[in-house]
Design a protein that fits this description.
The protein is an alpha+beta fold. The protein is built from nine helices and six strands; from the N terminus they run ββααββββααααααα. Helices cover about 65% and strands about 15% of the residues.
Length: about 300
């Protein structure tokens, strides 16, 4: 069954883990929600928002989640209806964190009492706070990856695929930022919303979530700047190696050019060339020219021209 219900002190937490005909019929029969909200929960990838009505709020919340199969951070959407004595959470995809919190509250009496002993606004705070705190390990893991790549770059042990690894990290940081940014404004709106289930005391809790999201944002900004700096550093190192290879090839080409010219001249059947009939002197010219070239290369390396 897609609908699960927890009750405590006349407060209901209804969790719908998939939007199907049964769930839609249940919402239409038991609640007087606006038809536009019902339409919204049937479509995925809604913009995070909060719609305020006389007796309830409709909230579209997103939080970061790791997709191991794609190696990227994606957004998980949870739609929420909250009224004076109920909280309805609706999942479009199976959200493991939300499911764990719901069943923990369902099976653990202490957790149930702690989360549902107040009004629905406090339950909403506990849920959102727990969901966003679950994102911290993901952020910490990204930080460890950045530190590892940084050490590899400056230790000289980086592999050729480090540019791609940096690009993947940059994409994940940008995705994380894109998800977190609108949630800060949503929490700010919640803290300033006044309803019987969202009073002055509850606003302090949502301000606390907003502060936490601001800390996450500051960490993401630092990660973004670090990745950009590492990307510039890697590009500089790659350009330096490329210049070294080009310099080496240029030295080889220029060094062989006089010898190639001399061999070309003496390889032609032309009478009257100096020492053309004296192989010893011809080879001596080649050796002398090669020694001059080697000596010039040594002098240029000592003066750090090469």
């Amino acid at each position: 069954m897609a609908i699960k219900i927890i009750e405590e002190n006349q407060l209901k937490w209804i969790n719908i883990d998939s939007v199907d005909d049964e769930a839609l019929a249940y919402l239409r029969e038991n609640f007087n929600f606006h038809h536009l909200d019902i339409d919204d929960i049937q479509s995925e990838s809604q913009t995070p928002k909060i719609d305020i009505y006389k007796n309830y709020l409709f909230i579209v919340l997103q939080f970061p989640q790791w997709r191991a199969d794609k190696q990227m951070v994606v957004d998980s959407e949870v739609d929420i209806f909250i009224g004076e004595n109920f909280l309805i959470t609706i999942q479009h995809n199976k959200v493991r964190e939300l499911k764990n919190f719901f069943y923990k509250c369902l099976k653990n009496k202490n957790t149930k009492r702690k989360w549902m002993s107040h009004d629905s606004g406090f339950l909403l705070y506990k849920l959102i706070d727990s969901l966003f705190h679950e994102c911290r390990p993901l952020l910490n893991n990204m930080g460890r990856q950045i530190a590892k790549i940084e050490n590899e770059i400056f230790d000289g042990t980086s592999d050729p695929a480090i540019v791609k690894r940096l690009a993947v990290l940059r994409r994940n940081v940008l995705n994380f930022r894109r998800i977190i940014d609108p949630q800060r404004y949503l929490m700010s709106n919640l803290s300033h919303t006044r309803k019987p289930f969202l009073n002055e005391d509850t606003s302090l809790y949502f301000d606390d979530i907003n502060d936490y999201l601001s800390k996450l944002w500051a960490i993401l900004e630092r990660y973004k700047d670090t990745i950009n700096g590492l990307h510039v550093t890697v590009e500089s190192l790659i350009n330096q190696k490329t210049n070294q290879v080009i310099s080496a090839l240029t030295v080889i080409s220029v060094s062989l050019l006089p010898l190639t010219l001399l061999s070309g001249i003496y390889g032609m059947n032309i009478d009257g060339l100096p020492f053309a009939h004296s192989p010893f002197f011809v080879w001596a010219m080649f050796v002398a020219l090669a020694l001059i070239i080697i000596m010039l290369i040594i002098i240029m390396r000592k003066r750090k021209y090469l």
